[in-house]
Design a protein that fits this description.
Largest sheet: 5 strands, parallel
Number of strands: 5
Shape: globular
Bound molecules: thymidine-5'-phosphate
Helix content: 40-55%
Order of helices and strands: EHEHHEHHEHHEH
Oligomer: single chain
Number of domains: 1
CATH class: Alpha Beta
């Protein structure tokens, strides 16, 4: 039996994470590996309910600490009910965002320290970390172009942040990737989608059947 793996995709808004996750799931299925596609916040009934609390309403609905706790609570439920059982049965979990998004968004922009985020993660999710995390990076212009297409109908509470905020986030993600090179791989996502999928699969080849 293939051993279960936990793979996450991270990055700012509009870098193509969901497109890549679908393509990776297809590639895994073609190799006979069960792929569980999931996302944060969400991915389990309880976490999806918390997602609604986080994504709807005005910008100031939650203060920084309440928001960090809600993301950690959603993650705890997601890990316990979806992610750990899937890995235990040998599936590959492909997750769109995970704790590194809390480190970048709540930690980087929201004034919560990285140690606090990791303490919440230690308590809520027993500190589970991905086997591999892909940081998808795009140029500023390309991100803006993709976002304006995606958000033509109106951005949600978390997505409606200005361009300089997105640039700070991108810098924070790059710092995290550089500080933990065994877990992270940085992928240039300005390239065509098929080339990005191929680059990710190449990085996973040692684990693939
Ligand atoms: P997305 O579904 O478009 O990726 O939206 C999720 C939003 O929530 C995105 O703006 C990033 C944000 N987010 C956090 O701020 N902290 C987190 O821990 C996670 C998972 C997402």
């Amino acid at each position: 039996m293939v051993s279960g793996r936990f793979i996450t995709l991270e990055g700012g808004e509009g870098v193509g994470k969901s497109t890549q996750i679908r393509a990776l799931a297809d590639a895994l299925s073609a190799r006979g590996v069960e792929a569980v596609v999931t996302r944060e916040p969400g991915g389990s009934a309880g976490a999806e309910a918390i997602r609604t609390l986080l994504m709807e309403g005005s910008d100031d609905r939650w203060d920084a600490r309440s928001e960090a706790l809600l993301f950690a609570a959603a993650r705890a439920d997601h890990v316990a009910t979806t992610i750990r059982p899937a890995i235990a049965r040998g599936a590959w979990v492909l997750c769109d965002r995970f704790v590194d998004s809390s480190r970048a968004y709540q930690g980087g922009g929201g004034g919560i320290t990285d140690a606090d985020i990791m303490a919440l993660h230690g308590f809520g999710s027993l500190g589970l970390l991905p086997d591999r995390t892909f940081l998808l990076t795009v140029s500023r212009d390309e991100a803006a172009r993709r976002l304006s297409l995606r958000d033509a109908a109106g951005a949600d509470r978390m997505g409606s942040k200005p361009a300089d905020y997105q640039a700070r986030l991108a810098a924070r993600f790059s710092e995290m990737a550089a500080s933990e090179p065994d877990r992270w791989r940085v992928i240039d996502a300005d390239a065509p989608a098929e080339a990005v999928t191929a680059a990710i699969l190449a990085e996973l080849s040692a684990w693939l059947p």
